[in-house]
Amino acid sequence: MQLAEHFLKLNKELLGESPIRTVHITISGLANILECSERNVKYIIKEMDAQGWVEWKPKAGRGHASSLSFIRKAEEVFFKIARQKLDAGDFAWSFSQLKYLDMDAREQYFQLLPGYFGFHEIEKNNRSLDVARVLYPSPGITLSPRGPLYIEQTQIVKQIFDTLVRFNEETGKIEPHIAHHYEIEPSGQALHFYIRKGVFFHNGMELTGSDIKYSFEEMISQGGRGILPRMFKNIKRIDVQQPYHVSIYLKEPNFLFIHLLGYPEASIVPEKIHQALGDDFNRHPIGSGPFKVAEHTKKRLVLDAHAIYFKERPLLDQLQFYFVPEIIHFNAQLPAHLSTINRIESHDFERGATFLTFNQNKSGICQNNDFRKALYYGLDKQGLTSKLQSSARPADSFLSEREHTPKYNPELASIYLQNSGYSRETIHLFTKQGNTHVKSAEILKEQWSKLGVDVAIHSVSLEEIGTGDFYNVCDIFLSKELISGSDADLELIELQSRFKWFLNDDLITGLKKVQKQIFRESSPQKRYRHYLRIEKSLKRDFLVIFLFRNKQMLQTSLNSLEISLYGYGTPFDKLWNKPASVSKI
C-alpha cells in the first residue's frame, strides 16, 4: 500500500524520535520529501486525513507553512497493514518498510515472523495441505540445473529434476535412479543404462532415452565452467538403442564418469519443452522430480508435490520459498533470541580447509621458494585460530583428519626471508568477501608484519575472482573450499582443478597427468592415493599452505525448520509435519 509507505516516510523524516506530533511545513516541502508533484502531495495528504492518520490544517497563501498533525503512530499503521500482507504471504512489503521504524518496533515485528514460517496446515479447495514455508535470504533464484550451482540452488534443483543415478552418502556408492540398472564395460569407455518405464515429467509426458541424449548433448554444446562441461567433452557419442536403453561411449577411459551423472547439473530435461521455452525454462522449468513449479515470481517460489512421482511421493504437499534479501541486513541488528537465521555448530569438523595459494603466473618474490618458506614458518596457526574466536582448529591437509603439528618457527622464517632477497615490496593478499575471510587476512598481515613483510589486503566478490585484475595483481589468495559430504571423488577433482588458477604451465601439465591416472583407476582407494600425491606435491613446494578447518554448521530457519548446509542439503521430499494434536482412543 503506497499511501502507508508515504505516511511512514513522512513520520520518519518529520518527527524522528520527537514526542511533538505536529509540524509546520509547506506543500513544496512535503513534495520534496515524497519526491512527487505538489498536486500529488495534496491528494496524498487528503487521503491520509480521510484514513484518520493525520490532520492537515492548510494556511492561506502560497508558500506559507501549514500544520500537519500525526494522529496515528507509525507502528500502528505499519502493523495493521503488515499483518494483512503476512497473511497473504507477502513478506517483501514489511521488510521494505522496516527502515522507517525504531528498534523496538522492529523487534516486535520479528516476534511475529515465527508464526508465518516453518510447517503449516492450510485449506485449499476443501483440502487440507501440509506446507513448509522457508525464508530465502536472496533476491531470487535461477532454477536451471546447469551449473555450477550454489548449495542453496542445489537443494531446490534436486526437488525439481532427476538424474540417471544418485550417490548414496551413507554407503558411498552410486545407485540407480532414473536408470533401474547400469553397466560399465571393463575398458571404462562405455556405459549402458536401462531406463525405468513410467517416469513422467511434470507435464505428464513420459521420460525416455531421447530426453537423456538431448540433455547431455545440450550440456556439451552449452559449455561453461565447472567439472561437468569439462568432463562431458570426453563423450564420443550417445546411442539410444531403444526408448529405454541408452549407451554412452567415451573417447578415453574414465571410471569417474558414472559419478558425474549423479550430479544435479546432469539432470534430465524434457527435450521438446526445453526447446520450446528457451530461456523461460530457467524460471519455469519442467522436470521429473518430487516437486513441480507452481509459481515463481520476484517474491516467492512455490513447489507442489508431483503426485505421480516414480518413487515415493513427497510427504509435504507444498514448499514455499520467500525471497527476502533484506533479512540479512536486519538480522545482524537483532538480539540473538530474535534472529531469523541462526547457524548452529555440529560436533563434526568440515571436510576441507581454509588455505593459501601462491600465484605462479605473476613475476615477483612469490616465485621464490625461500620466500614462501619464510611465510610458512612465520605463520602461527594456533594464534590465528585463537584470534578468530571460533571452533576452528589448525589444518595441515585438505584431505587428512590428522591433528596439526605446529610448524611455527619465527627464527627459521627470518633466515629464509633473508635468503630470499626480499626487499620490502608489497605482497598483495586477495581473499573472498566475508567477515571470517577478511579477519583471517588481517591476522596474517599482522603476523607477517612482525617478520618484516608488507601486505596489502584485497577483498573481492565471487564475480571478480578469475578476472584480469585478479590474476595480474594477486600474489596470494586466501580461500575456503569444502567437500560438502556428497561425492568426494568428483569434488576433489573440482577442487584441485581450481588450484590451476595460479599454477604455471609445467605444474598444470603434471596435474593433468595425475588426473588422467585417476580417471583410469577403478579402485577408490587407489584414486585417493593419487589425490594425496597431488596435495603432497603442492605442499612440498609451498605452493599451497593449509590454515584451518571449522566445525560444520546447520542453518535454522524460523519455527525450528532446519536447513542443512552440507551434502546435497535438506531432503525436502522427506520432510513432514506432525499434527499438533492427535485424538486419543
TrEMBL record:
Residues 6-99 form the Transcriptional regulator SgrR N-terminal HTH domain. Keywords: DNA-binding. It comes from Neobacillus notoginsengisoli. The lineage of its organism: Bacteria, Bacillati, Bacillota, Bacilli, Bacillales. One of its GO terms (molecular function) is peptide transmembrane transporter activity. Residues 173-462 form the Solute-binding protein family domain. Pfam families: SBP_bac_5, SgrR_N. One of its GO terms (biological process) is peptide transport. This is ABC transporter substrate-binding protein. InterPro entries: SBP_5, SBP_5_dom, SgrR_HTH_N. SUPFAM superfamilies: Periplasmic binding protein-like II (SSF53850).
